[in-house]
Each structure stands twice: as C-alpha cells, then as structure tokens.
C-alpha cells in the first residue's frame, strides 16, 4: 500500500481533533478577559460569576488542545521526515518562538488566573486574564506564520535541496498572515459566543439563574455576531488574496474548469473530475467576477488554463487539486457562516431570550456551525494546495519519510483515532457536566 495517502489521512484526522479545541481557547480567553474587565469597572458580581463559570471550560479546552497538539509534532519526524529536512530551518523558528514565548506566557498566567481569585487584587488578577488571552493568541500567530510559509513562501533561499531562511522579517511579514490570523481569530470569537449562548440557553430553558444567564446570553450573542461578521468580511478579502497567490485552489473551490469572462458563480454542481466538467450546475451570472476582482466583467482563469501554466512553470505533472472536495467544503463553510450570522443576529435582537424557547433550543446546537465552518475552511486551505506541501517548492509525495511503512501508519492511525475520539467524548461530557451545575454560586465556590 502507498504510505502517502495514509500519512495524509493520519495528519488530517489528528489535526481536525486538535482543531476542535484551538478556536474556543482563542475566543473564550478573550471573552473571559472582557467580562472580568467589566466586573472590575462596575463592581457587578454577575460578571465575576460569569467569568468564574466559564473558567473551568477554558482550562479543560486548553488542556485538550495541548495534548492533541503535541502529537502533531511527532508526525514531522516519523511520517514526514523529508518535509522536516527541507523545511526545518524555516519551520523551526516560529514553532520555537511559539513554545518558548507564547505557550509559556499563556500557560503560566492562565494558571495564575485560575488559582488567583481572591488571592490577588482585582486589577492584578485582571492583568493575568489579559496576559493569558494575549499569550493564547500570540501562540496562534506563530503557528500561522509557519503555515503561511507553506501557503505563500517568503524570505527563503534554496541551498542543497533545502529551504534556508534568508530574511526573518520577510517570514513574519508574509502577506498571507494578516488574512489567515484575523480569519482564525474572528472564527474563535464567533465560536466562543455560540458556546456561551448554548450554556446560557440551557439555563434559561430550565428556568435557572435567569438574570445571570440572561446577561451571559446577551454578551455571547454580541460576541457571536461580531465574530461571524468579521469571519465573512475577512474571508472575502482572504479569498481575493488566495486567488492571486494560489489561483488553482480558488478555481477548484469554484469548480471553474474553463476560463470565463465574465465568470458565473456556481451555487451548486456535481463536479465530474474525470470528464473535467460540471453536471447540474446552478449559476449566478457575473457574480464570480465581482467576488474575485470587484468587477462584474473581469476574467477569471479556469483550471485547464491554470494547469497548462503550471506545467510550463514546474514541468509535467498533475496540478489540479481534488475539485469535489474543495468545491463542497467551500460551500459548507460559506453556508455555515451565513447561518451563524443569521442566528447571532436573531439572538442579539431577542430582548427577552427566556421568552423565545424555540430560538434557545436551536442555539443549544448552534456551536456545531462554527466548528463545521472552521473544519471545512481548513480542508480548503490544505487540500486545495495539492500537489504541494510547500507551495511551488516541495510536492507531497517528496515529503514523506523514505522508510515509513503503510502497516506502521495504519497501526498508529487506528490507535490515535480511537484515543482521540475517547478523549474528545470525555472532554465534551465534562463540559456538559460542568454546565449542568445546580447553581453558579456553588460552581464558583468549587473552583
């Protein structure tokens, strides 16, 4: 058996499990810091209770993110050693900074914050909340700096079959980073808002702590709406940037086989990759041209012409990514994002959410949407880069470890998938158990 697709599946599954926890840590840390800031400013104990209630959820989520993230690093040495050899000089720098600076910052001050209630002054304790949130998001920045090089290589030189760092400033100012980082951060804000609303909705439906969780619901609704709107706006401009940097990815996401001027947006289709055409295509004329270039009559390059250009630049080979995967993942992402905006707007507009049981029941399940959108977005980002693991520099099949066997990958794939599934279920049940506390006051005293 070919070990390459097995190694790709293993990394994809472990990454998706890891991603279940990362965005909530980003958003929830900021939510708690803001709520606690309001407590320090107003002296209103409700905001302190809200911060303390969601604190254990943040710690649980953070711990799971650390555990699932560590395993990813072993992939680089075990399954992708040729990638590590090629990229180590560049990839190692942002990862080392992330671990030595950002991770220790967030973990240290998160612990001080968690155990520092009533032991530190209000302002000193608030500072630990903000430092923990800052460290968490700086950590994401450095990880995305490493990934941005894979998407849009900058600041390197090729020597001895390796990519060596030639300009650290160019690495950290990669034009892909602002789009990718703010897109991820806004997604974390939206997810945190929906999670807060889900817990608040549960309490409001049960008729418990209505006043307290009414406040939490309103804060969560605003967080969700702001995050969801930012996700859509930033995602639009990121798509225009990716169209210039990786035109093949966006053409695959739109299932655009032929170059068009003007280009129609395909709402739904059944891509036929063998015949290189679409079946049952539902189109909106001119829209893709406008979305791509803010011009209703702009020319948009199709996959066939882009493949010819790739062959001329890189030599013979297959350069069209899996079209169906990218096409459907992109639409799942967009549809989930639109539903997030709609639900968050309804939640913000609900003056008395306890009187809207139908909306509250829907919001119990609403956190699925940002998880779905985020996962689908990363599928487009990573699968759409095929056949490159480092765009334009290193192909996927050239990055695999030379001596790794399919049997070893299958064994570890089964073990890790089973272990991650159990850990995720346990974390989810612990979160629900915490959310089902009889009284927030008791929960606050317990922690």
Question: Any chance you could write out the topology, listing elements then pairs?
Answer:
Layout: H1 3-19, H2 22-42, H3 45-78, H4 81-115, H5 122-151, E1 156-159, E2 162-165, H6 168-172, H7 176-206, H8 210-245, H9 247-253, E3 265-272, E4 277-284, H10 287-293, H11 303-314, H12 323-349, H13 357-365, H14 368-383, E5 388-390, E6 394-395, H15 406-435, H16 440-446
Antiparallel strand pairs: 1-2, 3-4, 5-6
Helix pairs in contact: 1-3, 1-15, 2-3, 2-5, 2-7, 3-4, 3-8, 3-15, 3-16, 4-5, 5-7, 7-8, 7-13, 7-14, 8-9, 8-12, 12-14
Which properties best describe this structure?
single chain, 447 residues, mainly alpha, two-stranded antiparallel sheet, 6 strands
Explain what you see.
With about 450 residues, the protein is mainly alpha-helical. It has helices at about 5-20, 20-40, 45-80, 80-115, 120-150, 170, 175-205, 210-245, 245-255, 285-295, 305-315, 325-350, 355-365, 370-385, 405-435, 440-445; strands at about 155-160, 160-165, 265-270, 275-285, 390, 395.
In short:
By secondary structure, the chain is mainly alpha-helical. The chain has helices at 3-19, 22-42, 45-78, 81-115, 122-151, 168-172, 176-206, 210-245, 247-253, 287-293, 303-314, 323-349, 357-365, 368-383, 406-435, 440-446; strands at 156-159, 162-165, 265-272, 277-284, 388-390, 394-395. A hairpin with a 4-residue loop joins β3 (265-272) and β4 (277-284).
């Amino acid at each position: 058996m070919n070990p390459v697709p097995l190694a790709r599946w293993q990394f994809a599954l472990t990454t998706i499990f890891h991603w279940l926890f990362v965005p909530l840590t980003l958003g929830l840390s900021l939510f708690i810091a803001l709520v606690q800031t309001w407590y320090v400013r107003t002296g209103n104990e409700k905001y302190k209770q809200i911060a303390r209630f969601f604190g254990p959820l943040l710690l649980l989520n953070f711990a799971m993110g650390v555990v699932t993230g560590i395993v990813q690093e072993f992939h680089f040495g075990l399954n992708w050693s040729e990638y590590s050899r090629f990229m180590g000089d560049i990839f190692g720098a942002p990862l080392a900074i992330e671990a030595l600076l950002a991770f220790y910052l967030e973990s240290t001050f998160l612990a001080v914050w968690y155990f520092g209630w009533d032991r530190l002054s209000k302002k000193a304790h608030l500072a630990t909340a903000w430092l923990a949130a800052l460290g968490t998001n700086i950590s994401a920045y450095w990880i995305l700096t490493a990934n941005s090089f894979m998407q849009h290589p900058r600041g390197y030189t090729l020597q001895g079959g390796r990519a060596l760092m030639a300009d650290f400033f160019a690495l950290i100012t990669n034009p892909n980073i602002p789009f990718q980082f703010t897109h991820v951060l806004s997604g974390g804000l939206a997810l945190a808002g929906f999670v807060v609303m889900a817990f608040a909705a549960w309490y409001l439906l049960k008729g418990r702590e209505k006043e307290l969780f009414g406040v939490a619901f309103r804060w969560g609704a605003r967080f969700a709406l702001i995050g969801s709107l930012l996700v859509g706006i930033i995602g639009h401009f990121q798509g225009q940037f990716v169209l210039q940097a990786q035109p093949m990815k966006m053409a695959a996401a739109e299932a655009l086989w032929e170059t068009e001027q003007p280009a129609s947006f395909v709402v739904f289709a059944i891509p036929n990759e063998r015949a290189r055409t679409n079946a049952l295509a539902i189109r909106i004329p001119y829209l893709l041209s406008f979305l791509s270039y803010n011009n209703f009559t702009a020319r948009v390059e199709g996959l066939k012409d882009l493949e010819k250009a790739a062959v001329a630049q890189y030599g013979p080979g297959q350069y069209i990514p899996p079209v169906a995967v990218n096409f459907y993942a992109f639409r799942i992402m967009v549809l989930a994002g639109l539903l997030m905006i709609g639900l968050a707007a309804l939640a913000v507009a609900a003056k008395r959410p306890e009187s809207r049981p139908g909306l509250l029941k829907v919001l119990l399940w609403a956190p699925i949407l940002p998880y779905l959108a985020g996962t689908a977005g990363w599928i487009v980002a990573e699968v759409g880069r095929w056949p490159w693991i480092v765009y334009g520099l290193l192909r996927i099949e050239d990055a695999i470890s030379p001596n790794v066997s399919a049997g070893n990958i299958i064994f570890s794939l089964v073990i890790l998938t089973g272990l991650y599934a159990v850990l995720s279920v346990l974390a989810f049940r612990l979160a629900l158990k915490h959310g089902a506390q009889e009284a927030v006051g008791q929960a606050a005293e317990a922690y």
